[in-house]
Amino acid sequence: MTKSKLEYIWLDGYKPTQSLRGKTKVVSDFSGKLEDCEVWSFDGSSTQQAEGGSSDCLLKPVFICPDPSRIGDSYIVMCEVLNSDKTPHVSNGRATIDDDDDDFWFGFEQEYVLQDIETGKPVGFPNKGYPGPQGPYYCSVGAENAVAREMVEEHLELCLQCGLNVEGVNAEVMMGQWEYQIFSKGAQDAGDQIWVSRYLLERIGEKYGIKVDWHCKPIKGDWNGSGMHANFSNTTLRTCGSKEVYETICKAFAPRVKEHIDVYGADNDQRLTGLHETQRIDQFSYGISDRGASIRIPIFTVEHGWKGWLEDRRPASNADPYKVAAEIIRTVKTADVPATA
């Protein structure tokens, strides 16, 4: 009889930013398949998802991958949270995604800052004052500018061993700030992979004694904040070959600024100031290769005959990718695309 460890992970009900929770289920002779993961339960009164008098919430497995960081036959199981009657819990952003046929593809650029627990500052920052201005840290190499690479590399390797579709990693513009990118042909799957990758990074941080700071503006002042840029496409964007169609879809975002900002992460007003490659939080713009716009039209898309994708640069690093994807899909579907598309 073979024993397997299944780490069920889910999002709690904390506001304004949800956190990951997890607990291990030991099972016998497990097949490794998602369909053989049982629905489990947890105490929602301890995660701000239920009252003590009726505390059971359900965990519905939706994504599974191997967990090579644990000894023995081990897996990570991403779960949706359901009420006891099996309806989606109000904290369940994944259930709000309306894309049953996976027509929408998403590539998220996840930025984060690694923080020294003892000093409370980003790794590499001096105990007093600040390091030199941003500039030399982006895509840097060398001990003077690139810090905590060992932890970043371990995270990348572990993600790849788990089967997550990480497409790249790089040091970012602030000392101690890094980024990785994940792409998936499906909004829910893209969100699943981002959350599992965040879980893995947090767990690796336990070993190094380093906190992963997801806040979008962890250091005030003349520093870039941390985002989670959302690159997205559907069949229309991938095949239309029409500048007019692209502009029509971009314009559909203009009247829905509030709806997007509401789910694009807490404290995003500290990051979306109109400076540091951002548009102001209360304004909307789009442009070709414009990193100061709300939505950037990549030069790749233009050079390939208006067939490609768009990048919404507003989501913060602490945003829920499920809710971000759901809102983008909702807006794109409102666009009155010309019949020629």
UniProtKB/TrEMBL annotation:
Primary site of residence:
cytoplasm
Span of domain GS beta-grasp: 4-86
Q: Which GO terms describe its molecular function?
A: ATP binding; glutamine synthetase activity
Gene Ontology CC annotations of this record: cytoplasm
Give the Enzyme Commission number: 6.3.1.2
Query: Where does the GS catalytic domain start and stop, copy by copy?
Result: 88-341
Its Gene Ontology biological processes? glutamine biosynthetic process
Keyword line:
ATP-binding, Cytoplasm, Ligase, Nucleotide-binding
Q: Quote the SUPFAM superfamilies the UniProt record gives.
A: Glutamine synthetase, N-terminal domain, Glutamine synthetase/guanido kinase
The reactions it catalyses are: L-glutamate + NH4(+) + ATP = L-glutamine + ADP + phosphate + H(+)
Protein localization: Cytoplasm
According to the lineage, what is the superkingdom? Bacteria
Q: Which Pfam families match?
A: Gln-synt_C (PF00120), Gln-synt_N (PF03951)
Quaternary structure and interacting proteins, as annotated:
Homooctamer and homotetramer.
Which family would the database say this protein is a member of? Belongs to the glutamine synthetase family.
What does the UniProt function comment say about this protein?
Catalyzes the ATP-dependent biosynthesis of glutamine from glutamate and ammonia.
Q: Please report the name of this protein according to its UniProt entry.
A: Glutamine synthetase
Q: Which organism is it from?
A: Rubripirellula lacrimiformis
